[in-house]
């Protein structure tokens, strides 16, 4: 019987299965993406707080954090084995390896399958003698290496060799298998890497007999979705893998899970086929139709424009929406119809397939805005001010339209009953539902009146809120908006506040729309607060909810910014918040509802978070901030503020801000972000100090130049997607790119200069390259261009946190030309492509004029903008300002400030060497001149090759032809260029090449004071230079005098070698002495003088050690160059020069070092080198120059008609700057030419020379009328009533005209004639208060006027009876002529002649009467500055002659 039963059992089994004695691999049948192919984690579910969750090298890692990664499978019951290659490291290598050796290693990560778990293999359980991918950690030594993985590249190689196999077995009894890897313990530097999961089954293999669908025919409407369910026979079949396909993807598509999408009208057959046995398959016919029968019946039923916080759209934002109602008995297809808000373009947006159909007697929402986040949403906004929505058929023929009124936040405009003709406003919107449940209201309650503004307080407050009769006051204290079902009711409206509290108040009344929400933050000053306060109040869901929160990883985000797993903070979601800005003295100056969104790159994940605050019209119509946040830009209208955590400087939060402040205060023309530190609270909880910054996107352009987003082309460089067009088109950029290929042509270069602000572009490139950020070029680049005929590209500085990361910026930048970008985690793609901005720059360098201008600018950036002492003062001041606040958070700004100061103190010589050694600049045969330039008057201006010298000072290197020009400020005249002799009177070689050095080549001296002058180096070796080695030169063709010991491992040579030389100086060098260190080196080095760093070459910034490699190899192999050392480092008596030379890699074939030191002395006192304003610098030698000016005498002031106050700048069609009414009205700037305060109260200003007393500046003291010394005051020409600013009683014409300023006692006047100009131009004097006027392409309201290559000398003023360009005029017996500085007046009689000389801007420079003797007289005008003048001569009989002259 037992045998019979067995036989029967075997027969039964044989018909359906094969008895298996071994493990059967079912990986491909069940596990999705077991080997992380294409660097994606598709198919895996995981949660992790690990710092890195990357997928690369077709493997995955979690580093520094917890994690749980898994898949859940539906499988037949039975025994399974899960395998994976994985290892776990418990800490950093130095700690973890010691624990491993001591058997104290605590591995907290494990492989699990259902309830079974085993520890993951230790990283130290396998080792190799091969340094895979040059990416391993060596626990041994160079003779006996023990290599372990130390990065993803080396780990992938270990996996290829079969290391780190982990297995676990489990019995499945409920047809479900959940398996994966988990670590629940966070330890610093823990690390898990894994790849190649495998699933095996042990038991009877049950073959698949057949498969079928639960339905063989599927009828769908266009855009509909449906899932096909599969039946397996037998139900316990082992192999269940299916391949899905559609025979007509234009009609229907299917994914790997059987989800069908109706794509187009027609029929398609969906097939599911067994991957194990293709003969087993099932088919389903899908019929797709478009239900168009009821199209004409579709009705726009409800519209919500200002959906602030009520309904979440498919993009997880709060977008506006329009509800469509279908009154018919059949579904009507919505997909494919068109939506528009423009009657002339009814096909603006085609509704995509996912809109499907509107159900019979049903509703469907069309969502607007946030198209970038979800392409199914309409790509334009509903208009807050009201408008019309059009719905059209597939051909663009109008089906229906509906107008809607100005928005009321948190309400909708809806039909009173579905489909009816009557409309109303309701505070109970019903998207995609019947309106029958809504109640409608007429009118809206006024906002509750709160008797106290948001504020900082020290003693308890009583706050009172009005409650109108019949109204209910609702409030919350958790940040959420009050509703009748959320929050609390107050009967009295009185609130006692003794601790930090955030209130949100709202009034409700039956039959009336609720009021707006009013927010107040009362912050107890229980800590030192020295900065303004940002208080953000919002529903916590908007920040911390897994579905919607922008501060959490959550469940609805996307990958990127260093995370291969989706993160909410990566989304550009807008969240409604209240933003209050409270000044440091506790006063509320901003309180409005705004959008808040996450911002930044990788720093989005950092805490505290960065965010943006974006004003929008949907919040009670207010789309800008009505307070000047930034002291340095008080006349701008900002729509968006960026609140930044410091990016990669998230602790000190100073680096980018300080570098941009250094640039801004230098005066160099380049766009940058303003800065204001602030402390911020969220829902009453103190978070941190952050920096308020201008945005760097389209809103920066709007605020600073007045261009709307649809008026500009703007692009950026993305770290994973390369060039990205943000607004407009790339047409102009592509044109620039194409033109640059022929940039060496003068004609082509001229054309490029018409579309690129060449001055700003060169300034921008010079600054970025000098700073040497390694996160720039491939990233952090934004350029924009107005879409006008003369619009020019400009660039914005931002995110300079990675500055000083390379000392080889030119080769580093050029090497990016073809670049492999970061992996796009969503797709697994990794883009390798050309970076066009690199190509453009390299092509532009082929043009001689551009190349020279760039070299000069780069030198100005090095020697003026980033002059070390100036930088030190700015950085220290900013660090001192934030120190006490950051200290309360356990942070210290000096952790960044000090390394910045150190880097900038030695950077100039290193980066000038990089300039000299970059072959494209062709400077090998050009002498480097060390030049110091200054002025004895701060207000004066100096140009170098027609470029303004920033800061009016320069101390650095120059190359090639240099022409300087001095411009005297108001009330001064130029005396001459003073300087020392341009050649050193004595050159003393302190030590020469091929001399003896002490050296150490046996390893590290880290931690020893080997640079100090008192260090004892008696145990060092000594030998003559050159010192080094070259493994490829057995014949010593390089001529080494001393061969250094590089160690025992030729593939891993010692990285650093040390040298010292002691010498004597008879005297301490003077301030004018120059110490020149000439070197021949391979690769990089740092030089110290008497223990202090004096310079570095090809070395990274910051602290370096023995193991630090040079930042680049020596291109010249070796490189030759020189550093000018600070003479103050040297002293009388014994001095020590110490040098550390670093190799570029352990496998480098050579080291080379030789050097000399020369003292160049200059003697003699300053002498006048030239009295001409223009001075050509001698082509050799070093130079110390000072532009000298002296005050004009009273007589000279009278001759040039210099007045105490000048009309300095006029903008008669202003489109950029705002007044106190936040209107962009025209303005006039006055300049105080004196060194004392000047009160303009009582003075007159007019736009009519015939009515000079048209408007008198008020004397009532209500508005400030005092101009600081050499300062500015602005008058708005707009007829508005003054509040805190001056407003004239007249407007000025954009077509051109004149403005006249008259003193209060009417004893003097000043006139400026201006030309017609665009709103982004102005007419101004240069220098401030000077004689010459320019049409300036960059208005500079209330600040120093700046000219550039595009500024035009204004020599065509508005003058009645236009005067020809003549230098001789006759009228009757009167004759007027000019020659070489003298006006000649002749008359037939001995008349009295009135002579008046005007500048071309209408300023009276000379006014006197002369009596002719011998019928002729000569009048000298040599005291006047060079320029164009108009001379009037009027005789007693009324005869008049006028000439226009040019005085050289």
Q: Could you describe the 3D structure shown?
A:
The structure is a single chain. The chain is mainly β. Helix content is 12%, strand content 37%. It is built from 16 helices and 100 strands. The strands form 25 sheets. The protein has a 7-stranded mixed barrel. The chain has a 7-stranded mixed beta sheet with strand order 87-86-81-80-90-91-92, with no helix packed on it. Helix 6 runs antiparallel to helix 14 (868-888), helix 8 runs antiparallel to helix 9 (746-755) and helix 13 packs antiparallel against helix 15 (894-917). The longest helix has 24 residues, at 894-917. The radius of gyration is 39 Å and the shape is globular. It starts with a helix and ends with a strand. Residues 1-20 and 1356-1366 have low confidence and may be disordered.
What are the defining features of this structure?
disordered N terminus, 7-stranded mixed beta barrel, 7-stranded mixed sheet, 37% strand, globular, mainly beta, 1448 residues
Topology:
Blueprint: H1 2-14, E1 17-18, E2 23-25, H2 27-30, E3 45-48, E4 55-56, E5 59-63, E6 67-74, E7 78-89, H3 93-101, E8 109-113, E9 116-119, E10 136-138, E11 147-149, H4 152-160, E12 165-172, E13 176-183, E14 191-202, E15 205-206, E16 210-213, E17 217-221, E18 225-227, E19 230-233, E20 242-246, E21 252-254, E22 259-262, E23 266-274, E24 281-289, E25 299-304, E26 321-325, E27 332-333, E28 338-340, E29 349-350, E30 357-358, E31 363-367, E32 387-392, E33 398-404, E34 412-415, E35 423-426, E36 440-441, E37 455-457, E38 461-464, E39 472-476, E40 488-490, E41 494-497, E42 501-508, E43 518-524, E44 533-537, H5 541-544, E45 558-560, E46 563-567, E47 575-582, E48 588-598, E49 611-614, E50 640-644, H6 655-666, E51 675-682, E52 685-693, H7 698-705, E53 712-718, E54 722-727, H8 731-740, H9 746-755, H10 758-771, E55 781-786, E56 794-795, H11 809-814, E57 818-824, E58 829-834, H12 836-844, H13 848-865, H14 868-888, H15 894-917, E59 928-935, E60 941-944, E61 947-948, E62 954-959, E63 963-967, E64 972-979, E65 986-991, ...
Helix pairs in contact: 6-14, 8-9, 10-13, 13-15, 14-15
